[in-house]
Design goal:
By secondary structure, the chain is of the alpha+beta class. The chain has a domain at 69-119. Helix content is 36%, strand content 13%. It is built from five helices and four strands, in the order βαβαααββα. The protein has helices spanning 14-20, 33-37, 44-56, 58-66, 103-113, and strands at residues 5-8, 25-28, 80-83, 92-95. The strands form two sheets. The chain has a two-stranded antiparallel sheet. Strands 3-4 form a two-stranded antiparallel sheet. Helix 3 (44-56) packs across helix 4. The longest helix has 13 residues, at 44-56. Mean pLDDT is 82; it is low at 1-19. It comes from Homo sapiens (Human). This is Acyl-CoA synthetase short chain family member 2. Residues 47-107 form the Acetyl-coenzyme A synthetase N-terminal domain.
C-alpha cells in the first residue's frame, strides 16, 4: 500500500524537537490515492483544518458532527455549555444534555441499512 516516508524536521524550539522524535526524523505514511479519495479525512491538511475548527469553533464543529448521527431524542437545549473559570462558579461541561441516541445503530446498522455499505470493509 505504501511505505513510510522519513522526513527531517527542521526548526528550533522544543515543539519541533518533540514532533521530530529521536534523531530528528518523523515518520509518516501516505495511503494510495484511491484510499485517500474515499476516506472520511482524506489528507493531513484536512485533518489539520478539522482540528483547528474543533478548537476554535467547538459548538459549530461538534454540531456539524452531531448532524451525521441518528438521534432518538434531539438535544432540547443548548448544544454545549461549560464553565472553566472558578471565579464564575462551579466548573462543569455539558454536551447535548437530554439528547439520546443508540451508538451501535449509528456505527453499524445505519451504515449497513441506510447507506447500503454492508458489502464494504469497515476497517482495515
Amino acid at each position: 500500500m505504501g511505505l513510510p516516508e522519513e522526513r527531517v524536521r527542521s526548526g528550533s524550539g522544543s515543539r519541533g524537537q518533540e514532533e521530530a522524535g529521536a534523531g530528528g526524523r518523523a515518520r509518516s505514511w501516505s495511503p494510495p490515492p484511491e484510499v485517500s479519495r474515499s476516506a472520511h479525512v482524506p489528507s493531513l491538511q484536512r485533518y489539520r483544518e478539522l482540528h483547528r475548527r474543533s478548537v476554535e469553533e467547538p459548538r459549530e464543529f461538534w454540531g456539524d458532527i452531531a448532524k451525521e448521527f441518528y438521534w432518538k431524542t434531539p438535544c432540547p437545549g443548548p448544544f454545549l455549555r461549560y464553565n472553566f473559570d472558578v471565579t464564575k462558579g462551579k466548573i462543569f461541561i455539558e454536551w447535548m444534555k437530554g439528547a439520546t441516541t443508540n451508538i451501535c445503530y449509528n456505527v453499524l446498522d445505519r451504515n449497513v441499512h441506510e447507506k447500503k455499505l454492508g458489502d464494504k470493509v469497515a476497517f482495515y
